[in-house]
């Protein structure tokens, strides 16, 4: 049994806790949250140790699941690594590329599995799309189109500390783009505007964005973001190749279609929001991590993946500011 | 050039006239309608002879297109046949099976093409479904399900002389069933009710019906009718076999989908009514007839097809009255 | 906490056990299976009492979940009822209508909840269809079309004791028809054939069936069955009314569409078989039962529902034998 | 009757000729093609005058339809305008923005209708999408996504004189973008590669492109091009706004879906190529022009629209070369 320490007992933490207790090869060894009540709730629900500190929780575990607030991620990764524990850390590693690089240096030589919470890689539809592409079903992959729109604007308080749309929201799409493309984007173009809520300009942020990536071999990728889709959470991935196309589409809770005097085939709203839409992805991602821990294998979404997606977000910020196609090498340089 | 005499210049007659004038191998030689004004309109539009009688029109032609009212069909078939002209006659041949049999006897030995206007056989989707089944794509055909619902109740005046739902409306589905099944139904069950307009009972008619057919080898077919589908003309054909299924679905004028806070993927209303939905089928059916005339071949929808569909309608009427699975042999005697 | 005795630890029993242990208001008090090993497995997995007899298990519980083989259902219902325990029994109550009637008499006066395992009533899509109809969205309900096809023929051994297609398979559709129609079918027509496996005739059974039901007010229902759909488990419900239509369609594991030189929009296979397709329905049905037990309310799928569906199956058998529209009153006589 | 002179009797010319002869308010007065045989064919087919020169044809007409090769367009527009004839000219006006500007100057003061052949504006689905947006159905329009992929690479000879992907192919999408956005794009980003046929680099051309446009108010538009979609002609327009979304999708010849052991709901290939996909659009566009001529109204797709789309193409070329977000004002200078 893999003993897990869960750090952070908010919405995502609770989801992971439920997955852990159902897993056959893992158990919840300890939970910790700076807000004691949140940890207590999970402790009572699953009858597990509520640790007084992150350090105490880490000490009790084989693997650490970091679901705390973003600014603590890098520190907790370093603490867990120095304690020799396998690590699952929610995205992003940090909002600062420098801090991420420092963290990478700090854990150099660490040889246990470390996985970043890019759950969308584990969504069955998205993964089937990628598997079809890898298997040659669509010939040579030429274009990727990712539509990624949230169902509604997050709170002002959240947005203030989010790091901006590219590091907070698009970072999932940057990771998905890399996962799908199968080669590194070398150039990034980004533009956007505050169309949902023009006052976002006060935060220096935008809520609507269009991004284009280009790889060395010329593969193209478009990402399309909005913070507020009236019709729900919109998550589509289109892979276009020399022999065909696959599209991983949106999901509904069930398949009722309505027909009346004005419309035909009207479907149910989409699953909304990520907790529902990506429920399987969260579970499958954590299960995959547990298998990697058990077999000491490299996970699907690594620390390097976290760093590279952040570099793309940084490049997008620079492109937005300077109105040009920014080379990723300038950022990583 | 095949010279065509068009008898009957109503809605269907006009459609056929437009197809004839565009055909490369045919021309409108003469038109006739007991209502002179209707014939005059087509005569002016296409600059063709307006005959004073059906006989005069027939005499001017190589082929006769009969689109007059049902009670005149059999007489005009006989007149055309005795004049040695190829014949295209709208369905049904007659509402009386005895009259149809008499007509068959009367034209015995007639060796020119005669086609009945079962246009749905020529609908590209329905035909592709049948072609797929014939080509073995779905293995052995086992079940056919036909959904056939009109967008709204016809006028009382029309319904009074329609011959009842099975001879007027379901007869198209009986023909389609035979076309799809590839073998003769030997038993018919039918039930129904006047649900759209309960006062139809005064006419001894119904507006909602469910029919089941069974062939000698046990193949099954269900037909589902309503005189009034609020969401438009509903025309679906499902073929189920040992290796798969094909469904020929409804058609829309274009493919706009709408997404809002309550529905996703809401499509346009269906094409409505048969003039729009089966526009291609009408054209393709008449073109097929013209080719048969040119090559003196047997058409796809023959006099015999017209008679057999009417026998199924008669069997359905008897089943409705007697509440039992009626053998078609009882009807055909 | 509602203490549950689980009788029968096969495939369905295991599913229910998993739901019970996750429920907040229930616990697995005891399990029993004539095959000891099956009970032991669940006992070990969930750390619960393995009873030496059904009676012992019943005595330890507040509610009994009967998932044993069909011939034992009525006896166990009677035993549970006489012990005053709430009852959840898998369908059918018995293959004999006389035995069911006797069971009904035997438990007369029993006032605890008793639910029959007609899980499809709890499928979110099917239920949303019914709720839409009940809410008046489609006006007056006029027609119900149920497509219900298994992905493959069951084993010969299973089929031999199944009671025949109408009591084994269609019984789910009969229940769904009653659930959707909102009034009792008064007449039943059924026909069919052994098209999947002609040797089924040796068992006096069929594998392909078409059924038509009619209610007092003239509402119509068609049920379409096959024991073997090559493309997977096919479960569709269509409700047609004076103002529109709703269709509860099939479900896929995810929404990948494929496009190549010959096809467009090709979807994933359907979820297959009932354990996957109706996973939510099984869970929601049992949760609904637990709420009924907690609040001592009448469940959604009652003993009477079980008896009436069996009567429709019996009527279908008679219709198949006699080739006529059989009145349900003849059966219930 | 509006007398039309058709200049250019190739594929597009023939399509327009067929529309003209069917129009109630127009007739084919004369045809001209430098390749005499092409003109003769149409002349024979529709029994109309075959002119010896463009000038002769123009003199015989009320309106001139220019469907000749691109380099002749501007000259023929000037000739027709100076003769005072209404003008319908296929896109593009010219490959050189300077020549277009000169043409604009040359016809200054011309007050008859002049329409550019941006047929996609008249596609019923695309127009319904725009009408829905204009009617406020999706709230404030925020994003436009245009997918536009040809079914296969044109011939090398064609590509050599095409003017490059942006002026030849994307120009349709630039026009559609302006039509949908309802305000002018002020900045253009473009990137791409020769992925379909790497040897296109020899022509200085690409076959795969991604473009992003931004308007003054921040509205965003993405255009996605490929010269070779294996699954057929891919023409989708997505309009995303504050209250919802509409998508105008691809079209199939009919609606057959296939289900087998590996896929469900597999549809027919898309209509392929523009002659089929945009058949209605070509007809509706020309009919709209004829109404404008009859009523002396300004057409939907004006000379200015032709010039502005070409400016966007020019900006895209500059963006591709310089890797930056190019202001349209730089181009229009």
Question: What would your notes on this structure say?
Answer:
Four copies of one chain form a homotetramer. With 333 residues, chain A is α/β, with parallel strands linked by helices. Chain A folds into two domains: 2-112, Rossmann fold, CATH 3.40.50; 121-273 and 302-332, Dihydrodipicolinate Reductase, domain 2, CATH 3.30.360.10. Chain A has helices at 11-22, 36-46, 54-59, 73-82, 97-106, 124-134, 156-160, 165-168, 170-181, 274-277, 279-295, 303-322, 328-332; strands spanning 2-7, 26-32, 49-50, 63-66, 86-89, 114-116, 141-149, 185-193, 208-215, 220-226, 234-241, 244-248, 256-259, 266-267, 326-327. In chain A, a hairpin with a 2-residue loop joins strand 11 and strand 12. Chain A is globular. Chain A starts with a strand and ends with a helix. Chain C binds chain D through residues 230-232, 250, 252, 258-270, and chain D through 230-232, 250, 252, 258-270. Strand 13 of chain B pairs antiparallel with strand 12 (244-248) of chain D, so a sheet runs across the interface.
Task: Provide tags for this entry.
homotetramer; Dihydrodipicolinate Reductase, domain 2; 13 helices; 38% helix; 2 domains
């Amino acid at each position: 049994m893999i003993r897990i320490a869960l750090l952070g007992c908010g919405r995502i933490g609770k989801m992971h806790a439920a997955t852990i207790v159902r897993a056959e090869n893992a158990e919840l060894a300890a939970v910790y949250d700076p807000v004691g009540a949140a940890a207590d709730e999970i402790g009572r629900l699953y009858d597990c140790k509520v640790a007084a500190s992150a350090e105490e929780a880490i000490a009790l575990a084989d693997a650490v699941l970091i679901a705390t607030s973003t600014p603590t991620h890098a520190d907790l990764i370093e603490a867990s690594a120095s304690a020799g524990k396998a690590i699952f850390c929610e995205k992003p590693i940090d909002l600062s590329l420098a801090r991420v690089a420092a963290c990478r240096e700090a854990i150099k030589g660490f040889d246990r599995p470390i996985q970043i919470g890019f759950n969308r890689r584990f969504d069955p539809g998205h993964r089937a799309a990628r598997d079809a592409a890898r298997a040659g079903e669509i010939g040579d992959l030429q274009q990727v189109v990712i539509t990624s729109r949230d169902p509604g604007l997050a709170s002002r308080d959240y947005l203030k500390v989010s790091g901006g749309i590219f590091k907070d929201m698009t970072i999932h799409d940057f990771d998905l783009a890399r996962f799908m493309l199968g080669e590194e984007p070398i150039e990034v173009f980004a533009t956007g505007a505050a169309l949902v809520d023009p006052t976002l300009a006060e935060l220096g942020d935008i809520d609507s964005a269009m991004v284009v990536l280009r790889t060395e071999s010329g593969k193209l990728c478009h990402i399309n973001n909005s913070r507020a889709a009236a019709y729900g959470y919109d998550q589509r991935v289109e892979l276009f190749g020399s022999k065909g196309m696959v599209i991983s589409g949106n999901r509904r809770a069930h398949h009722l279609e309505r027909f009346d005097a004005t419309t035909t085939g009207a479907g149910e709203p989409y699953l909304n929001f990520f907790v529902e839409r990506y429920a399987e992805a969260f579970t499958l991602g954590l299960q995959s991590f547990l298998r990697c821990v058990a077999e000491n294998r490299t996970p699907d979404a690594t620390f390097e993946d976290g760093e590279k997606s952040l570099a793309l977000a940084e490049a997008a910020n620079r492109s937005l500011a300077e109105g040009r196609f920014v080379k990723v090498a300038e950022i990583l340089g």
